[in-house]
């Protein structure tokens, strides 16, 4: 057996707002410890929607609307020493997750406990199906967003896989990256024999030690069309001490065949010298960062100096993608705040040094009643930082965050665990984003790209006023 010893990674520091008391900072630090680098580490996920909640491994949280994945947050409760989990059925798994993480503390835990005891007796008699009872237990919450997933629906979430190899990567409590769930069946990781609990020590030859997930994703996004990635795995055996185990370096094929390009764009030149770039973002899937980045660079090279970002009909997508692409317009600014069921709040920043669009170019974001979740995160980030004005209708108002937990039977649980607000503190849930300029825009079934009626002089004037107010 080949063994190696690695220095443990350092956990990411918590960013706190100026002026917080030490008690408040400690509360936020506790939240960081409990949710394990919310979103930042989640972005490293090879199959970002997947996580097994068993015993010592992390839970992976995702923001959903009715149609699919919206956001990701990870929660780390792992221990360094690998311990085999006790046998457990789907109903028991779901009960433990609801009891620990469900956001609405007003829901009577007594009712959940009584149903659990009732269902446990049924299963103890050899009657009933664990997954059916897990579904009933989840429905008892009365939350339309919380639900169980069968194997087929769980695997459909692969279009939000940002790496494309079918293995969910996340940190243990010491910050070391592990495979947190069984690889997706028939994926590259599954075929290569990758197992839940394997440590990932390097990606494409670069160590994962002391690196954030955003840094790892940025590394991979430098070559988004790469057909494969190489990961170094360390498997810790039952007799191995911490940081020991067999080492394997594996080249894994990436698969994004079913993911559609979410970006459409064009350029309209006006007689007054305004070159209006129209960019439609259909959803925030695994390709949005690369495709939008390429589109913006092309438009800038053609002389674009004003932008219309069309989010009409966009139901959302991967939350980290919304935060990432906000970095094309904002340099190291707060994109959104996440609030858990303890009311602990954590801000998420855009990236540094990734801005593509000139800071003086006016931007307007088109919204309608179907612009939801990650769309609202992105729009709120640009709007509250005085980088864009919103136009159209009030957005959908989906500000809750759901976790997607992988179950041992191959299915999953979607559970509401947190909410997010805009940088200025606007609660999106049930409220949406009110447009700065109310306007009737063509909607489904046709989305017009006609930007001729957008008054960019007015947009620039309003943006300057916003910036002036924030300076005062």
Write a structural description.
Helix 2 (90-101) packs antiparallel against helix 3 and helix 2 (90-101) packs parallel to helix 4. The model is unreliable at 1-87 (pLDDT under 50). The chain is globular and about 75 Å long. The protein has eleven helices and 19 strands. Strands 1, 2, 3, 13, 14, 17 and 18 form a seven-stranded antiparallel sheet that branches. The chain starts with 21 loop residues before the first helix and ends with a helix. With 472 residues, it is α+β, with helices and mostly antiparallel strands. Helix content is 25%, strand content 22%.
- Briefly note the structural class of the backbone: alpha+beta
Helix content: 25-40%
The proportion of strand residues reads: 15-25%
Oligomeric state, counting identical vs distinct chains: single chain
The total strand number stands at 19
Largest sheet: 7 strands, antiparallel
Low-confidence stretches: 1-87
Radius of gyration: 23 Å
Topology pattern, helix = H, strand = E: HEEHHHEHEEHEEHEEEEHEHEEEHEEEEH
**Separate helix tally:** 11
State the separation between the terminal residues, measured CA to CA.
65 Å
Mean pLDDT: 78
Outline type: globular
List the SSEs and their pairings:
Blueprint: H1 22-35, E1 59-64, E2 69-75, H2 90-101, H3 109-124, H4 130-139, E3 147-149, H5 151-155, E4 169-171, E5 177-179, H6 188-191, E6 199-203, E7 206-207, H7 213-221, E8 228-235, E9 246-253, E10 263-269, E11 275-281, H8 288-301, E12 306-310, H9 319-326, E13 334-340, E14 345-349, E15 363-367, H10 374-384, E16 389-392, E17 400-406, E18 412-421, E19 437-438, H11 456-471
Parallel strand pairs: 11-12, 12-15, 15-16, 16-19
Antiparallel strand pairs: 1-2, 1-17, 3-18, 4-5, 6-7, 6-8, 8-9, 10-11, 13-14, 13-18, 17-18
């Amino acid at each position: 057996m080949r063994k190696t010893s690695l220095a443990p990674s350092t956990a990411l520091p918590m960013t706190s707002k100026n002026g917080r008391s030490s008690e408040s900072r400690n509360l936020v630090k506790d939240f960081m410890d409990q949710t394990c680098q919310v979103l930042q580490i989640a972005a490293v996920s090879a199959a970002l929607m997947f996580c097994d909640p068993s015993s010592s491994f992390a839970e992976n949280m995702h923001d959903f609307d009715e149609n699919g994945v919206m956001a990701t947050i990870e929660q780390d409760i792992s221990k360094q020493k690998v311990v085999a989990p006790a046998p457990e059925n789907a109903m028991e798994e779901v009960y433990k997750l609801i009891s620990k993480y469900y956001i609405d503390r007003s829901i009577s835990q007594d009712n959940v406990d009584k149903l659990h005891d009732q269902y446990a007796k049924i299963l103890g008699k050899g009657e009933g199906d664990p997954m059916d009872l897990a579904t009933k237990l989840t429905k008892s919450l009365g939350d339309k967003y919380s639900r169980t997933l069968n194997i087929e629906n769980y695997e459909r979430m692969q279009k939000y896989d940002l790496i494309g190899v079918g293995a969910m990567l996340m940190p243990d409590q010491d910050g070391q990256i592990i495979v947190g769930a069984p690889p997706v069946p028939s994926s590259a990781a599954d075929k290569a024999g990758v197992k839940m609990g394997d440590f990932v020590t390097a990606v494409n030859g670069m160590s994962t030690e002391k690196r954030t997930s955003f840094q790892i994703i940025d590394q991979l996004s430098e070559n988004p069309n790469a057909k494969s990635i190489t990961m170094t795995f360390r498997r810790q055996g039952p007799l191995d001490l911490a940081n020991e185990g067999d080492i394997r370096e594996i080249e894994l094929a990436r698969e994004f065949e079913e993911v559609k390009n979410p970006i459409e764009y064009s350029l309209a030149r006006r007689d007054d010298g305004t070159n209006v770039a129209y960019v439609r973002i259909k959803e925030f899937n695994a390709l949005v960062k690369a495709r939008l980045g390429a589109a913006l660079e092309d438009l800038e090279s053609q002389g674009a100096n004003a932008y219309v970002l069309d989010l009409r009909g966009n139901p959302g997508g991967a939350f980290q993608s919304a935060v990432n692409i906000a970095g094309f317009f904002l340099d190291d600014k707060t994109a959104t705040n996440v609030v858990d069921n303890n009311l602990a709040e954590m801000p998420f920043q855009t990236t540094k040094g990734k801005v593509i669009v000139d800071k003086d170019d006016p931007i307007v974001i088109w919204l309608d009643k179907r612009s939801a979740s990650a769309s609202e995160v992105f729009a709120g980030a640009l709007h509250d930082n005085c980088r864009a004005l919103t136009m159209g209708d009030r957005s959908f108002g989906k500000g809750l965050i759901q976790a997607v937990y992988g179950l041992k039977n191959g299915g999953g649980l979607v559970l509401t665990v947190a909410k997010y607000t805009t940088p200025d503190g606007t609660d999106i849930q049930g409220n949406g984003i009110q447009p700065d300029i109310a306007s009737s825009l063509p909607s489904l079934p046709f989305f017009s790209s006609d930007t001729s009626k957008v008054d960019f002089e007015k947009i620039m004037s309003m943006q300057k006023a916003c910036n002036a107010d924030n300076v005062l």
